[in-house]
Specification:
The complex is a heterodimer. By secondary structure, chain A is of the alpha+beta class. Chain A has 2 domains: 111 residues, SCP2 sterol-binding domain (Nonspecific Lipid-transfer Protein, Chain A, 2-Layer Sandwich), CATH 3.30.1050.10; 88 residues. Helix content of chain A is 64%, strand content 13%. Chain A contains 8 helices and 5 strands, in the order ααββββααβαααα. Chain B has 9 helices and 9 strands. In chain B, helix 7 packs antiparallel against helix 8. In chain B, helix 4 links the parallel strand 3 and strand 4. The two termini of chain B are 24 Å apart. The N terminus of chain B is likely disordered. By secondary structure, chain B is α/β, with parallel strands linked by helices. The chains are: A alpha+beta, B alpha/beta. Chains A and B meet through helix 1 of A and helix 3 and helix 4 of B.
Chain lengths: 207, 256
């Protein structure tokens, strides 16, 4: 019952999030009737996912056969959830896929493409004016934070390279690397000349 | 099986909570209870069970094995919690029938489901569980959640459910049962007879209906007795799952 309660809470929260994306539910409706089983090997846990036009239904037990079963340890499942390159994770030796993998990939695609319209959700609770004010304020704070971080990054780099002389500056390093590259090419050219001279000396001795 | 006969020609009696009433009056008295509580049925379920009834029903759905295209009968479907989920699971090619003997409950359930946009593959039928008005071998799954204890002739109802099920079809009976833990049993008794009528009085202004609820739960067959009744009726592979220390049990049987 504890697991059922936990799953019910997760399902409720997840479906609220899915409703914030305008395309997620119609895309999930296309998967209606499909059953995806996630069989976690370490720790042993089974989860059934049933997509539908109202979101996802999660169950710890399901009587009918799943269309697609994914067996993997928890670490691989976490990696699958976070990784951008999901096919690579699915092809790893610890992951076992049985049944129609297209169902799983479609579901993963829907979850990966989520673009949450949090302003709409906020406006339902606070109204359009307050949401606009909060949204504008948050956007300006986010912009200020981004600019602040970029400025901090630049100033710190300049201080370490130019004033403290703890690190070599990027331009200085690039100039040194260019000089080293030129030196390397000169040395190689000199080596080639010496080799040619050595060859010509050997031929004159033989004559 | 709880019916008694008093004398050669007297009308058989059955229990209504802790009272004995003539069989012909039980359905009417149960109907009065549900007419009284129908409007606030969902609220009372949440208050009295602390929301647990949602988890018990969730487990019933998980065990139902319902899939797209199936025909499902939800008897005593009340306000349509199970029917709504079944409607989603069977999809447009399936069919769900929400049946209840009580017109008030059926009306609340129908309005609630239509308000939520559940339509197309669902029908509402006022029907007596003992005499189901459906053809033989018609449904893939039949459920009755918190309804069987109110039925006058439980054996007849179980046989009727067997008749309408297809061979291989499943009957799921979700019902209050007997706690398996003695301490829990004592706490549950105190809760049922003190808090439930009080909550009924405060929320629906009807303590008697909730006193009946507590009494009818005690008069309902325990897990093993109900299992034996299902086996006697002709069900195969009958099993039950206790939930919340046996306060509620889910019985499942397959039609051979």
């Amino acid at each position: 019952m504890l697991l059922a309660g936990l799953l019910a809470s997760v399902e409720h929260g997840l479906n609220r999030v899915l409703r914030m994306d305008s395309t997620a539910l119609p895309r999930l409706a296309a998967l209606e009737g499909k059953i995806i089983a996630i069989d976690c090997r370490q720790p042993a846990l089974q989860l059934y996912i049933l997509p539908g036009d109202e979101g996802l239904m999660l169950a710890s037990h399901w009587e009918t056969k799943a269309d697609c079963t994914l067996r993997a340890p928890a670490s691989s499942l976490l990696q699958l959830a976070l990784s951008q390159d999901k096919p690579a994770v699915l092809h790893s030796p610890q992951v076992e896929l049985e049944g129609d993998s297209a169902v799983l990939l479609d579901l993963v695609g829907v979850l990966q493409d989520l673009e949450l319209d949090w302003e709409y959700e906020l406006s339902r609770w606070l109204g359009p004016v307050a949401t606009q004010l909060i949204g504008g304020h948050l956007r300006s704070r986010a912009r200020w934070t981004r600019q602040g971080l970029a400025s901090l990054n630049q100033n710190l780099g300049e201080y370490l390279a130019e004033e403290a002389r703890t690190l070599v500056g990027q331009r200085e390093a690039e100039a040194r690397f260019a000089e080293l590259d030129a030196l390397k090419i000169d040395v190689e050219r000199l080596e080639a000349r010496i080799a040619r001279l050595a060859r010509s000396l050997e031929s004159s001795d033989n004559a | 099986m709880n019916d008694q006969r008093k004398g050669e020609h007297a009308e058989p009696t059955t229990h209504f909570g802790y009272k004995d009433v003539p069989e012909s009056q039980k359905a009417e008295k149960v109907a009065e209870v549900f007419h009284s509580v129908a409007a606030k049925y969902d609220l009372m379920n949440d208050v009295l069970s602390g929301g647990m009834h949602r988890l018990w029903k969730r487990f019933t759905i998980e065990l139902s094995g319902v899939r797209p295209g199936n025909r499902v009968l939800d008897i005593a479907g009340g306000t349509g919690d199970l029917a709504r989920k079944f409607s989603q699971l069977v999809g447009p090619t399936g069919q769900v029938v929400l049946a209840d003997i009580n017109a008030s409950m059926l009306k609340v359930g129908r309005d609630r489901l239509l308000d939520k946009g559940v339509a197309g593959n669902i029908e509402f039928v006022q029907a007596d569980a003992e005499k189901l008005p459906f053809p033989d071998n018609h449904f893939d799954c039949v459920t009755i959640a918190f309804g069987l204890r109110n039925v006058t002739h439980k054996d007849d109802a179980i046989r009727s459910m067997l008749r309408v099920l297809k061979p291989g079809g499943r009957l799921l009976v979700l019902e209050f049962s007997k706690p398996t833990n003695k301490l829990m049993s004592k706490v549950y008794d105190a809760y049922s007879f003190a808090f439930m009528p009080l909550a009924g009085k405060l929320i629906t202004n009807d303590a008697d209906s909730y006193r009946y609820l507590a009494e009818s739960i005690r008069m309902h067959p325990d897990q093993e007795t109900l299992k034996a009744m299902m086996v006697d009726a002709g069900f195969d592979r009958v099993t039950y799952h206790n939930m919340t220390s046996g306060i509620v049990a889910l019985h499942r049987g397959i039609k051979p």
